[in-house]
Every structure is written in C-alpha cells, then in structure tokens.
Amino acid sequence: MHIRTIALVTQSLLSAANKYGAKIPTGTLKLIRGQLDLAEQVAAYNPDSPDLATVVVDALSRDVDPVTDPAVLRAHLTKYIHEARGGFVESTNQKIYDALLAAWPQIMAAFKIPFDEAGRQLTATYADLTKAGYVELTDTAPQNEALAVSWVRGHSARRTINDLLGIIGGPAVVFGWSRYMNDMRRYDTNGVLADMRSNTDPWTALDNGWTISLATPDIYAERLATGQRNLSTQQRARDDQEKREYGKGAGDWLAKALNRE
Fold first, then answer.
1. Which residues, 6 or more positions from 58, have their beta carbon under 8 angstroms from its beta carbon?
2. Mind listing the pLDDT tens digit for each residue in 73-132?
3. 8: phi then psi, degrees, rounded to nearest 5
4. Among residues 6, 28, 151, 258, which is most buried (max CB within 10 A)?
C-alpha cells in the first residue's frame, strides 16, 4: 500500500474508534488530527498562477526590473509550487504516518477493549448455542427466546470482530506488518501454535478452543516468543520420539541378525 493512502486509512481508523467507543488518548488524537488537517490544507492550497511571460513584459513596460517585481516573483513561485504539489502531499502524509506509527501501541490498547468485549460475547453465544446442539452461528434465529437473544448478540459480536480486524489491518499493511497480522492469528493466548489465517471465522476459532482477544504489540511479542518456545519443545519431543523409534528398530534388526547367525 502506497504511503499516500495513509490519510484515508487513518480517517477510517478514527471513524471506527468513534463507532466502537475505542478511547484513543486525547494527546494522540490531537496529534493525528492535526496532521490530517494539515494534509487537507496542503491539498486545498491552490494559489493563482499568473502567466510568467505576461508579468515580465508588464514589468518591463513599466520600466521595472522583472527580477525585483513582486508580480513576477509571485508568478515564478506559484509555478514551482504547483509543480511541487505532489511532494507537499507526500511530505504531509509522511507526517501522518510517523504520528500514527508512534501512537500505535496506544491505538491498539484502545481497540483491544471493544474487540475483547466482542470476543467474550461471541464466546458466551458459542457456549449457549453449542449446549443447545447448534454447530454453527446459523443465519436463522433459534425459536427459543433466550437463545434468540444470544444469537443476535453473537452475530453483532462477530461483525465487530471482523470489522475491527479489517480496520486494524489497514495500518498494519502500510507499516509493512503483514507478517505481524498473520502471526497474530497463528498464536492463541496460551502460545499454542495454531493456524488461524486472516479468512478464518471467529466461530471456527472457538471451535478450535481459542480465546478471542486482540494482541497489542507487546502481547503479540509475548505470544510469538511463547509459541516459538512451545514449538521448539514439541520439535524436541518429536526428535526424541524418532530417536527412540530408530533405536528400537535398530535393536530389533540387530536381534534378528544375531538370531539368523
């Protein structure tokens, strides 16, 4: 994703924060919105650009040196301003990028609250429906009134989870964090290696025994380290098992060879 899209991504992020009640710190909001306002000012800045040749001739007709004539200077400067507009936009978007990157831990912490609440609600719905014999979050509400209420809340929670993952994924791609987004879905809260890809439904995650919660950068690093340690432990166990099996096989072969002799 090109950095010029960062303003749109950031606007979507702030809109989602307002929609879901993610309380981004005031100072962080002020910084990011200040950069967004600056970007709008830069985009709207379009000074009149008089024809350079015309104003030069006019200065000479007035017996004024064009080099010092204000109209000529304005024409000259506005010409270069228009030519450099792309660079101005790039520069302001870089400022938005830097502000967003610096504030990302606080932003993730703010979104973790509604995300985890949706995870708890979907987990409660999962428990209600599976206990009643349902194997999925159906498109049709159950006839039982209590189950129907839980069903409605579960659907809302699943939409929230998927929506927030999409919103958060935008900046992650801008930052070049595609691996982060994949790995965040590959390690559950206990650090057990799993395979929850970006298209995995949250209901499927619950089928797999996962706890649905948003990984902030610190939590992500902790989960990844724990998952890798567990993976190493599992690999060592497999290696030990292979050695035992190899040893048993070699022993059996040697015993048979000796008996044949």
1. 71
2. 888 888 877 777 767 777 877 888 888 878 888 888 888 899 989 999 999 999 999 999
3. -65, -45
4. 6
Average pLDDT of the segment spanning 215-235: 70
Shared domain check, 62 and 170: yes
Residue 17: CB partners within 8 Å, gap ≥ 6?
23, 24, 107, 110, 111
pLDDT tier at 259, thresholds 50, 70, 90: low
Q: Which of 124, 148, 176 is the last residue of a domain?
A: 176
| CB neighbour list of residue 157: distance below 8 Å, 6 or more residues apart | 118, 119, 121, 122, 125, 202
State both tokens at 193. Answer: 């290696």
pLDDT classification of 250: cutoffs 50, 70, 90: low
Q: Alpha-carbon distance 224 to 205, whole Å?
A: 18
9 and 134 co-located in one domain: yes
Instruction: State which of 146, 176, 206 marks the end of a domain.
Output: 176
Name the domain count of the chain. 2
**Contact yes or no for 33/17 (Cβ under 8 A):** no
Domain residues for the domain of 163 are 3-176
| Contact of 189 with 211, CB cutoff 8 Å | yes
Conformation bin of residue 142: beta by default, left when phi > 0, alpha when psi is -120 to 50: beta
